[in-house]
């Protein structure tokens, strides 16, 4: 088994460098995208504090479909462009939302969620999925989280599709 030891007192840059190494090691040599998404959701859930949901939605037939995740049961299908996940998928841009109630069209899967970070998963410049992170804490995600998660997902994207 992998020996993953992430010290949460590290700086954000060190934290994300370690998390990215762990993520890359987990998916290394494994071509099954679902298995890899499951382990990456579990890894993030275990090490990133303050989450109430962490997981993936996959782009299937121009719609987002629930993928592997940790947290409470969630909406299964999201239209492209709808809510925070749909905005990330439609634009290909990271969405860091401090207050989900102020986001037009936000989809409340879990009423506890207050802030959200959604990172598109791109393969050959095409969005094949999004990573969705929710927090019950308002304005939980820092710019360093958006940057760190974007690098992490970029490093493993080819094993997620
Ligand atoms: N809140 C998301 C929907 C997905 S769930 O939070 C798991 C959104 O607005 O896209």
SSE map:
Elements: H1 12-27, H2 33-47, E1 53-60, E2 63-71, E3 77-79, H3 83-91, E4 95-97, E5 115-123, E6 126-135, H4 143-156
Antiparallel strand pairs: 1-2, 1-6, 2-3, 4-5, 5-6
Bound molecules: methionine sulfoxide.
The site of methionine sulfoxide (SME) has 15 residues, from α3 and β6.
Brief overview, please?
This protein is 34% helix and 26% strand.
Question: Mind explaining what this structure looks like?
Answer:
This protein has a single domain (about 10-160), classed as GAF domain (Beta-Lactamase). A six-stranded antiparallel sheet has the order 3-2-1-6-5-4, with helices on both faces. It has helices spanning about 10-25, 35-45, 85-90, 145-155; strands at about 55-60, 65-70, 75-80, 95, 115-125, 125-135. Strand 2 (about 65-70) and strand 3 (about 75-80) form a beta hairpin. The protein contains four helices and six strands, in the order H-H-E-E-E-H-E-E-E-H. By secondary structure, the protein is an alpha+beta fold. Helices cover about 35% and strands about 25% of the residues. Helix 1 packs antiparallel against helix 2 (about 35-45) and helix 1 packs parallel to helix 4 (about 145-155). It binds methionine sulfoxide. Methionine sulfoxide (SME) binds near residues 53, 78 and 86.
């Amino acid at each position: 088994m992998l020996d993953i030891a992430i010290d949460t007192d590290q700086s954000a840059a060190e934290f994300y460098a370690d998390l990215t190494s762990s993520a890359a090691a987990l998916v290394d040599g494994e071509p099954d995208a679902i298995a890899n998404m499951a382990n990456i959701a579990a890894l993030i859930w275990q090490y990133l504090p303050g989450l109430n949901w962490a997981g993936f939605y996959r782009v299937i037939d121009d719609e987002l479909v629930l993928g592997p995740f940790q947290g409470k049961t969630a909406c299964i299908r999201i239209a492209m462009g709808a809510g925070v996940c749909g905005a990330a998928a439609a634009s290909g841009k990271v969405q860091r939302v401090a207050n989900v109630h102020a986001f037009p069209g936000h989809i409340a899967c879990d009423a506890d969620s207050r802030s959200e970070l959604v990172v598109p998963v791109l393969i050959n410049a095409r969005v094949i999925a999004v990573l969705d992170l929710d927090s019950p804490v308002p304005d939980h995600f820092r710019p360093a989280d958006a940057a760190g998660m974007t690098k992490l997902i970029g490093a493993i994207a080819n094993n997620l599709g």
